[in-house]
Amino acid sequence: MSSRRSRISEEEIAELLSKLQSLLPEARRRGTSRASAAKLLKETCSYLKSLHREVDDLSDRLSEMMATMDMDSAQAEIIRSLFRP
């Protein structure tokens, strides 16, 4: 493994930031106006944290629902089928 780092050009960074911006709801609402890289990274971190909280909340809600559900019911089977590969 080489200790040399590959260089990313400013053009590549701009392209990656543009792609990242297109994935963020706040940035999409802003339209085509460009945010600074620092602001975009801050928004990305905030968005990822909110997604993590949402996943945790949904997981808790599903656990609560499953705890009160008859495990032999059709509803329980539907939920189990969602988790099968």
TrEMBL record:
GO BP field: regulation of DNA-templated transcription; regulation of growth
TM spans (from-to): none
Listed name of the protein: BHLH domain-containing protein
Highest classification ranks of the organism: Eukaryota, Viridiplantae, Streptophyta, Embryophyta, Tracheophyta
Family statement drawn from the similarity comment of this UniProt entry: Belongs to the bHLH protein family.
Start and end residues of each BHLH domain: 1-51
Keyword terms: Growth regulation, Transcription, Transcription regulation
InterPro entries attached to this UniProt entry: bHLH_dom, HLH_DNA-bd_sf, PRE
Pfam families: bHLH_ILI
MF GO annotations: protein dimerization activity
Domain of life: Eukaryota
